[in-house]
Each structure stands twice: as structure tokens, then as C-alpha cells.
């Protein structure tokens, strides 16, 4: 038995429908049905946005940047998902290849905040400094491609910068959603 | 910390989703609807624990969900309005032998649902029902006509 005394008087305060105590609140229910219609439309809009790539992995999320010197083109996703892998692809033109090598600088954000996991092909050498990492790849001729697998751990907005020797700097913003 | 945030977000998302689905819980649920509920729970689990499947992480997630559930139960006991928002209110489907079409259409009920509830109450015909009430837990209470 409960240690607390029930001191309030026993009374029937439940709203009745005719003689049955139901507690129905039809006005509230009508408001709820209106809310339900609204929220299902909202859910539908979320799905449409997802298909289009507003939350990453779709048409709107894909981005392509070319530097002013046309030495490098970068394919990446402007919207990424946390803990989900994606690929950033660097395409090099002939002007990016000097003495059989491509020298690529990527800023720290790509390595740390955006969680660079793997780089293919493996670079001949990598040098840290100037707020990022500089990779050197042996290259026979254009076109040449390097891919970096990204897997950001946390949501956020990240600015990045990359540049190939013989080209201009490319900057961008990547939004990571939960 | 991310696990607790994910667990709270998952709980609240499920709370909204289950609430806006038509109220067909318990005895009125079909087998497929049970499967849908488990499917939603399974999907939420994936984002809650992520790659960290340690006992510590899973324990923290479970404790977070339990604490949140208890807090919401306490809040519902204090606020009837919140209780109505989260659990709904009972609705009269048949009143004095007359169907209430607004409720039937609004709750997407089928005649078969009422017939099943009637059989559970030892009423053989829907026409013999005086009152049928859709309870907050999805069960349909049936009161037969006195002369039937």
C-alpha cells in the first residue's frame, strides 16, 4: 500500500459522452489531424530533399571546381554525412605534370576535419607544412587522377583549400550533416 | 556524448513517427505493422550506437533512453495537455448505435477493425453495438446494446 495518503475526494471528472465516461476531446483531435496532415507533407519534403541531395549523396550535393589555370579539376560533395565515406577526386591536366611528377597541396581541413582516410594511388612522398600536406605523385602524362576517401566524424562546416603546382588555388566549403 | 545525443534524437523521432502513424497499436495491429515497428527501431539503433558497439556505449544509450522516457512519463502525469499530445485522447467510433464518420475516416479505421473488437466482446453483429470507443492504446472498447 502506498505510504502517501490520497486526500482528494473521489469524484468523476472525466468528460462523458452520454452516460459513458470517455474523456473524448474532439476539438483537440481535429487540431491533431490538421497537424498530422502538415507533418506528413513535411516528411514528404524531407524525402524529396534527400533524393535531390540536399542532405548529401545526390545531384545537388555534387560539386566540381576547376582552377583558373585549368591545371586541375576537383570533384567533391559539398554536403557530406558524418561517419559516411565519400570520394574527393582530383583530375590533372598536362600543365600540372612537371618532370613526370604532380605536386598536390591539400589543406589541413581535408586531412583532419573531413577525415581523409585513404589516398589512391599512394604518393611518392608527403610533406607537412603551410597549413596542410603536400603530396608528390609520379605521373606519365595527362589526364591523371588522384582520389582521396573522406569520412568526417562530426557535423560542421569546413573550408578547404587545394592547389597543384603549376595551377591556381581552389577553395571550397563542405557541410557535414549528422 | 554523441551516443547520448543520438539516443535522445532517435527517441524523439520515434515518438513523433509512432504518434503520427494511425493509432492501430496492440490488438488492432496486423503482423506487418509489428514488423514495421521493429524495422524502425532497428534503423534508429544503427545511428544511435554507430561504430562504437562497446558495452559502455550501449549501456549509456539505454540509460539515456530510459531516463528520457521516465521524464516524459512524469511530465505527462503533471500535464494532461501533454498527455493528450503524446498519447491522444479516446475517441467514440459508434455512439448510440450510430457510426461517427469523422472519427472513422480521421483514424483510418476499417469496419473489420470494429468487427474484430466486437467479437472480442462477444458481440456477433456490429449492429448490436451501442458504443465503440477507440482507446489511447489503440484498443477498441465495445459496449453492446442492452436489449441485444
Structure description:
The complex is a heterodimer of chains A (178) and B (148). Helix content of chain A is 17%, strand content 42%. Chain A is α+β, with helices and mostly antiparallel strands. Chain A has 2 domains: 16-52; 62-177, Immunoglobulin-like (Sandwich), CATH 2.60.40.680. In chain A, strands 5, 7, 8, 10, 11, 13 and 14 form a 7-stranded mixed beta sheet that branches. In chain A, strands 3-4-6-12-9 form a 5-stranded antiparallel beta sheet, with no helix packed on it. Chain A starts with 15 loop residues before the first strand and ends with a strand. The model of chain A has no long low-confidence stretch (mean pLDDT 87). By secondary structure, chain B is α+β, with helices and mostly antiparallel strands. Chain B has 2 domains: 2-87; 91-144, bsu07140 like domains (CRO Repressor), CATH 3.30.240. Chain B contains 6 helices and 4 strands. Chain B has helices spanning 2-20, 31-49, 55-78, 80-87, 101-106, 111-120, and strands spanning 91-95, 98-99, 129-134, 140-144. A 4-stranded antiparallel beta sheet of chain B has the order 2-1-3-4. In chain B, strand 3 (129-134) and strand 4 form a beta hairpin. In chain B, helix 1 packs antiparallel against helix 2 (31-49), helix 1 packs across helix 3 and helix 3 crosses helix 4 (80-87). The longest helix of chain B has 24 residues, at 55-78. Chain B is elongated, with a radius of gyration of 19 Å. The termini of chain B are far apart. The model of chain B has no long low-confidence stretch (mean pLDDT 86). The chains are: A alpha+beta (178), B alpha+beta (148). Chains A and B meet through helix 1 of A and helix 1, strand 1 and helix 5 of B.
Tally of structural domains of chain B:
2
Helix content of chain B: 55-70%
Mean pLDDT of chain B: 86
Count of helical stretches of chain B: 6
Amino acid at each position: 500500500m502506498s505510504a502517501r495518503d490520497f486526500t482528494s475526494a473521489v469524484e468523476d471528472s472525466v468528460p462523458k459522452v452520454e452516460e459513458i465516461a470517455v474523456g473524448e476531446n474532439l476539438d483537440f483531435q481535429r487540431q491533431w489531424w490538421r497537424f498530422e496532415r502538415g507533418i506528413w507533407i513535411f516528411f514528404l519534403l524531407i524525402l524529396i530533399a534527400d533524393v535531390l541531395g540536399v542532405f548529401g549523396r545526390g545531384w545537388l550535393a555534387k560539386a566540381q571546381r576547376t582552377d583558373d589555370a585549368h591545371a586541375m579539376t576537383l570533384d567533391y560533395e559539398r554536403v557530406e554525412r558524418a561517419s559516411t565515406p565519400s570520394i574527393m577526386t582530383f583530375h590533372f591536366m598536362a600543365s600540372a605534370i612537371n618532370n613526370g611528377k604532380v605536386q598536390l597541396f591539400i589543406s589541413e581541413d581535408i586531412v583532419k576535419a573531413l577525415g581523409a582516410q585513404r589516398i589512391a594511388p599512394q604518393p611518392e612522398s608527403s610533406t607537412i607544412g603551410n597549413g596542410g600536406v603536400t603530396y608528390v605523385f609520379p605521373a606519365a602524362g595527362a589526364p591523371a587522377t588522384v582520389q582521396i576517401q573522406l569520412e568526417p566524424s562530426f557535423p560542421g562546416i569546413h573550408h578547404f583549400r587545394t592547389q597543384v603546382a603549376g595551377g591556381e588555388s581552389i577553395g571550397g566549403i563542405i557541410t557535414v550533416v549528422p | 556524448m554523441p551516443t547520448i545525443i543520438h539516443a535522445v534524437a532517435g527517441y524523439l523521432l520515434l515518438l513523433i513517427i509512432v504518434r503520427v502513424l494511425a493509432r492501430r497499436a496492440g490488438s488492432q495491429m496486423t503482423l506487418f505493422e509489428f514488423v514495421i515497428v521493429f524495422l524502425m527501431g532497428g534503423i534508429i539503433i544503427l545511428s544511435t550506437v554507430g561504430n562504437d558497439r562497446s558495452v559502455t556505449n550501449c549501456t549509456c544509450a539505454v540509460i539515456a533512453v530510459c531516463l528520457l522516457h521516465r521524464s516524459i512519463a512524469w511530465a505527462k502525469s503533471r500535464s494532461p495537455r501533454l498527455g493528450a499530445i503524446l498519447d491522444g485522447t479516446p475517441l467514440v467510433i459508434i455512439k448510440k448505435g450510430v457510426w461517427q464518420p469523422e472519427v472513422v475516416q480521421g483514424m483510418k479505421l476499417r469496419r473489420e477493425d470494429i468487427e474484430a473488437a466486437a467479437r472480442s466482446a462477444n458481440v456477433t453483429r456490429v449492429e448490436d453495438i451501442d458504443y465503440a470507443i477507440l482507446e489511447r492504446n489503440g484498443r477498441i472498447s465495445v459496449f453492446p446494446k442492452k436489449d441485444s
